[in-house]
């Protein structure tokens, strides 16, 4: 009698991603590229045709590179050169270009049209057969259990079918009016600015062709102009009291009057126009059991730092590899607690920066504007002040101080918890120049900076995470692959500068490219044990239950049952 057929393992329930905006689509890509089963649902029947977010920074492009998307996205972005600030009377103040050296392997700030971004991201999901995408589908209920989440999904079809299924985790990427956040009864805390109303107009057939955004800080009428591809251009105007209320359709006559100093406009050339007031809000918690909040569902901020969408992509980059590690049994549930621990401080700092930039750059106070211009011009006369402003050193760095990182006593510990730069390196038998991440691969990586073979043997036995092993050759030595290790060498001077003083050290890099530890070979066992403690036993600092007060404004707690936090209304008769 033949033996019974081998029993097939029960497939892992999918991860449910709610919301097919940029954050949800990126999360689906990051999970799908790791082989995780994903169900992506979106209440709307298609991707958005509203050009809301308009700027991708270098960190976001690096995240999309990790998902294999950068080549598909470069045709729809403008490789940008930062932001140019103007003071009273239109006099130039500073051109903030960033470091200018493509520290993360991509241009610093890049205009794009959100409908194009969502279209490309959605099309590229076809590469992942493990990702199921359902438009016209709503999450209506969820019940958390110890090992899964039971969710109810309804469709917009006439029969209104309701499907119940189990999922491993729920990622709420469903925007400022998040259903996931409401079902979890998670309040948003922070500040709103109902008296500061802005009009945003996305225009077509525009003559602006600059590769940088322009912030005109004239207190009589603060204006932001961001040129895009193919004649698109975003204009943002601070409105005076009585011109238009937030959420009210802006009349075309107002749009034409505001655009008059910059261009002629017809109704057909207005792709989108909205009047809105902004918010500085952060969810009380980013994790609730097996559910997580990402993007605008987790935090909302004024637009002046251009970091709303980019913060959502940072959320996805931080969380998705951790979910994969836990589902694969390589880490415990405690690793998922580090999502809130690691992301909350940076999200709070970016929100606060956005508020401060609005107060300073877009002020309507002539006295404050005069003082601003005087201080900026004075700072630009000194090398430290010029670097601070032109390199945008006021922008918060993505630095993890508490979470899945290990700090020791030793050189260059300031690298720990920060994103590893992405220089071009020489690798392979033909010493081809390539980006560092393309060598490291999708998982953990361990860089050995001039360490001997015996050190690699000890590291392999120490219990460190399974990782790509990379030999770093310094001092203009030719790289070579050996014993299962990839050899790399400096191609443009930046790799040597990055690892100065680390000869004889290992650099452990997480899948999201944050440096997890810098250590000598004899400390490998200690680092491995600390990582196990942090990711299995729950040794990280617990997430803060509430956020500190934001800048003065209309401070409140926004409960899930409150009205939606923002009103965006299309003006009648314009092209979408």
Question: Could you walk me through the main structural features you see in this protein, from its secondary elements to its overall organization?
Answer:
With 576 residues, the chain is α+β, with helices and mostly antiparallel strands. The chain contains 14 helices and 27 strands. Strands 4, 5, 12, 13, 14, 15, 16, 19 and 27 form a nine-stranded mixed sheet that branches. Helix 1 runs parallel beside helix 4, helix 1 (22-33) runs parallel beside helix 7 and helix 7 runs antiparallel to helix 8. It is globular, with a radius of gyration of 25 Å. 48% of the residues are buried. Residues 540-576 have low confidence and may be disordered.
Main attributes of the structure:
alpha+beta, 26% strand, seven-stranded mixed β-sheet, globular, 576 residues
Rg on CA atoms, Å: 25 Å
Shape descriptor reads: globular
For the biggest sheet, the summary is:
9 strands, mixed
Q: What's the N-to-C terminus distance?
A: 68 Å
The helix content, as a percent range, equals 25-40%
Derived structural class = alpha+beta
Number of strands: 27
Poorly predicted runs are 540-576
Query: Strand-residue fraction?
Result: 25-35%
Instruction: Let me know the average pLDDT.
Output: 89
User: Tally the helices: what do you get?
Assistant: 14
How would you summarize what this structure contains?
With 576 residues, this protein is α+β, with helices and mostly antiparallel strands.
Mind sketching the topology for me?
Elements: E1 15-18, H1 22-33, E2 38-42, E3 55-57, H2 58-66, H3 70-73, E4 83-86, E5 92-96, E6 109-111, H4 114-124, E7 131-135, E8 137-145, E9 148-155, E10 162-167, E11 170-172, H5 179-183, E12 188-203, E13 213-216, E14 223-227, E15 233-238, H6 252-259, E16 270-283, E17 287-288, E18 291-293, E19 299-300, H7 308-327, H8 334-361, H9 366-379, H10 383-390, E20 424-427, E21 432-435, H11 436-440, E22 444-449, H12 453-460, E23 467-473, E24 486-490, H13 494-498, E25 505-509, E26 515-519, H14 524-536, E27 554-558
Parallel strand pairs: 1-2, 1-11, 2-7, 4-13, 11-18, 22-23, 23-24
Antiparallel strand pairs: 3-6, 4-5, 8-9, 9-10, 12-15, 12-16, 12-27, 13-14, 14-15, 16-19, 17-18, 20-21, 20-24, 22-25, 25-26
């Amino acid at each position: 009698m033949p033996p019974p057929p081998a029993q097939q393992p029960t497939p892992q329930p999918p991860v449910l991603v709610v919301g097919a905006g940029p954050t949800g689509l990126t999360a689906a890509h990051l999970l799908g590229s790791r082989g995780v089963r994903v169900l992506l649902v979106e209440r709307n029947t298609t991707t958005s045709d509203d050009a809301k977010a308009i700027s991708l920074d270098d960190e976001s492009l690096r995240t999309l590179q990790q998902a294999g998307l950068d080549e598909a996205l470069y045709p729809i972005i403008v490789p940008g050169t930062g932001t140019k600030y103007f003071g009273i009377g239109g006099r130039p103040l500073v051109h903030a270009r960033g470091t200018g050296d493509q520290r993360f392997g991509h241009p610093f700030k890049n205009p794009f049209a959100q409908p194009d971004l969502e279209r490309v991201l959605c099309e590229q999901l076809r590469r992942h057969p493990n990702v199921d995408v359902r438009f016209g589908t709503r999450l209506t209920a969820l019940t958390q259990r110890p090992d899964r989440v039971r969710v109810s999904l309804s469709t917009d079809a006439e029969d209104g079918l309701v499907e119940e299924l189990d999922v491993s985790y729920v990622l709420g990427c469903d925007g400022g009016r998040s259903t996931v956040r409401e079902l979890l009864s998670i309040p948003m805390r922070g500040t709103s600015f109902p008296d500061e109303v802005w009009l945003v107009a996305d225009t077509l057939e525009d003559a602006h062709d600059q590769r940088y955004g322009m912030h005109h800080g004239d207190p009589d009428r603060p204006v932001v102009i961001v040129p895009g591809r193919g004649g698109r251009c975003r204009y943002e105007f601070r409105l005076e009291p009585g011109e238009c209320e937030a959420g009210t359709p802006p009349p075309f006559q107002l749009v034409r009057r505001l655009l008059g100093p910059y261009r002629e406009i017809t109704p057909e050339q207005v792709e989108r126009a909205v009047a809105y007031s902004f918010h500085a809000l952060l969810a009380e918690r980013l994790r609730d059991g097996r559910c997580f909040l990402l993007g605008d569902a987790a935090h909302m901020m004024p637009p002046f730092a251009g970091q709303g969408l980019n913060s959502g992509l940072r959320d996805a980059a931080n969380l998705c590899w951790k979910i994969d590690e836990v589902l694969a049994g390589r880490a415990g549930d405690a690793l998922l607690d580090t999502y809130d621990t690691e992301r909350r401080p940076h999200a709070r700092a970016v929100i606060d920066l956005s508020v401060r930039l609005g107060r300073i750059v877009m002020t309507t106070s002539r006295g404050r504007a005069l003082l601003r211009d005087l201080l900026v011009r004075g700072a630009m006369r000194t090398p430290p002040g010029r670097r601070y402003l032109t390199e945008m050193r006021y922008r918060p760095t993505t630095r993890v101080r508490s979470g899945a990182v290990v700090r020791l006593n030793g050189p260059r510990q300031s690298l720990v918890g920060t994103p590893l730069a992405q220089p071009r390196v020489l690798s392979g038998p033909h010493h081809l120049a390539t980006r560092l991440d393309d060598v490291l691969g999708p998982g953990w990586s361990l860089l050995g900076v001039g360490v001997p073979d015996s050190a690699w043997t000890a590291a392999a036995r120490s219990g460190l995470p399974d990782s790509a092993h990379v030999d770093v050759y310094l001092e203009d030595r030719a790289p070579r692959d050996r014993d299962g290790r990839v050899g790399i060498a400096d191609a443009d001077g930046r790799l040597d500068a990055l690892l100065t003083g680390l000869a004889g050290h290992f650099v452990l890099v997480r899948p999201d490219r944050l440096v997890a530890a810098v250590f000598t070979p004899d400390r490998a066992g200690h680092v491995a044990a600390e990582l196990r403690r942090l990711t299995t036993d729950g040794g990280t600092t617990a997430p803060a239950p509430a956020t500190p007060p934001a800048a003065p404004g209309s401070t409140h707690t926004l409960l899930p049952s409150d009205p939606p936090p923002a009103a965006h209304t299309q003006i009648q008769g314009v092209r979408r």
